[in-house]
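User: Please run a holo structure prediction.
Assistant: Happy to. Please share the sequence and the ligand.
User: Here you go; the ligand is adenosine-5'-diphosphate.
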Amino acid sequence: MPGPASAHALQLDTPLRYLPGVGPRLAPLLEARGLSRVEDLLYYLPFRYEDRSLRAQISQLQPGIAANVVVRTQSFGLLRTRNGMLMAKLKATDATGVITAIWYNAGYLRGRIQPGQRLALFGTPEAESGNWHMRQPEFELLSESEAEETLAPQTREASLRLGRIVPVYESLAGNQLSSGRIRLLVSRALAGLPKQLPENLPDSIRSRLQLVSRREAFEQAHFPRDGSSLAELNECRGAGHCRLIFEELFFLQLGLEIKRQRVMRQPGILIHPSPAIREKLKQILPFHPTADQKQALKEIVQDMSSGRPMRRLLQGDVGSGKTLVALEAAVLAMENGYSAALMAPTQLLACQHYLVARERLHGYAVELITSQTRRGNNVNKAAVPAHAPQLWIGTQALLHERSGPHFSPALVMVDEQHRFGVLQRFQFLRHGERVPHLLVMTATPIPRTLALALYGDFETSTLRLSPPGKMPVITRMLPMQNSAVLHELMRRHVRSGRQAYVVCPVIEESENSALSPALEMEKSLRDALPECSIGLLHGRQEISEKSSVMQRFQAGEIQILVSTTVIEVGVDVPNATLMVIQQAERFGMAQLHQLRGRIGRPQPRGISPRAGEAAVCLLRSSPDLNPSAQARLEAVQNHDDGFALAELDLKMRGPGEFFGTRQSGLPAFRIAQPIRDQKFIELARAEARAWWKQADAAERRSMIAYMRSHWQRSYGLIEAG
Ligand code: ADP
Ligand code: MG
């Protein structure tokens, strides 16, 4: 059992508060960042490294190039600047020149440095009127001994920051734990741990892949040896990094594999497509499925009739026709006597699915469940016998139905999953004693690497072709000032019989109302285009109001719909072929792509697009965009393939941003980064699968116990399945 420990009796599991220098004040702050054991601190890696090993003489300094000099102090003092700040000023020399060092807000330096002392400085020198200056340099007091390298005894730990490759950490807990402080704590942790640390990777894998030991990995990642490649370290490709990244991904992939195996051991609910049912499907559908839709349905049928629970990801760009596939799967289930559930991320989308399903699926019980319908005004609730198979369509409110007496779908479909981010929760759904089939649909195309990281236990089907009749969408940037141009364009568009969307951001920090951009836009359009009928749609309306606005837009009574991003997903009004996106720079690339997926929808049968007609998406942005925003908008303008865009966005912004940080659903990686570490993900997956297959029962048990106690934070995944 870990307990109070001296600096020499630490274990990886020792609570951090027992690490000398942490104590009861810092411990809770670290805990809040998920660092509770010594091990957690060791997984907190530097975000970059600085080479401070090269020592220069003052005469060799070059402006702007960081360097390390050893000097003797001439004078040191604190001055108060005109604005009242305490500034420390040091003048020092070596055999070749003079240098001045300055620290701001430097009360903490009072009495620390004496004239005549030997000192090492590390910083970026600037030449000012012939004199060398360093601002805010790192410094270290040196002993008087002849050997320059020997540090004063109390500075053994200080040598962590000079004369070597130095790790730089992101500070923690506000600024209470600076990079320097973290460095010190990490070095104490390493000094206090045994020379041999218990290994957590199977030996066979470690030796085959030539991964360094755990101890070695931590040492090299925090305090690289002299002569290590700085470039390699900064790219997280040192031997220490490679091992730690692999390790993290290995446990993730093993978790997914274990989950997959558990699911696969469960009996699946048998859902078969008899010829009669196939015939029925054909009659229900308003059009011929595309080749991709057919293929996806075939794969779904194979899964659902395999005797094992389906775990399938259906991905396809916006407008590729996922809903149709979902409805087919639902009909299959219901024809086999089972219920199905379709979950959507917003009320609006749930509503829309509901309306489509009710229109297409004659003779089936379809029920809408959202938080509002559950509050008692479920106008659409169908009157069906209690045990007849049903299709429930709803928002997350569906999850609350779990306790409901007859809510037990045999097929659970989740639309636009990336917005939920909590796949686990759906997996708790049960069909009586059994696990339901699960189909996850996403229009945010997930690059293969991320799909593997996130859904390692899922098979994928992809819809690549758009259904016939889809119009091309032309995207252009239009500066915010050109309102007159915009109004004229919209007037002409409406006159030609088409409809338009105007999408405005929701600005939470705006003074009066988060909705003000939409409200203002609505008003200005009413003024500028009095002959057009204009509607307003936003997330704060009651569902009945939302659906009435949508229905009027669908029917063409509203010609221009001003809205917030509530229309982002799923909304389907083929006659709307112009979209104006206000303050486009406020949206992510994936989101912009989703939004423009609302226009250029396949035209209903019988109405073919007019010759040469294209849908138009205008990205309106402020004139002084920062370069990265400019680049994002240009990428959206120039690429219409969501998959390409997704890869690009991921590269430009990283996965958290790409999916919207809170919605990402990505496991919280400590070290790994899915894009950067793509190769490791695939390797880890192959190794994890192979290891699990050959492991005996005892090995498996102890691995699960280890993962449960040490990788829980990221991989609660295993539990949920
Ligand atoms: P998404 O994949 O974005 O959910 P939807 O399922 O909403 O796409 O389909 C996009 C549009 O394409 C809808 O208007 C739908 O009616 C239409 N559609 C779907 N499949 C076909 C098809 N096979 N042929 C013609 N139109 C189709
Ligand atoms: Mg959809």
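Residues 239-265 form the longest helix (27 residues).
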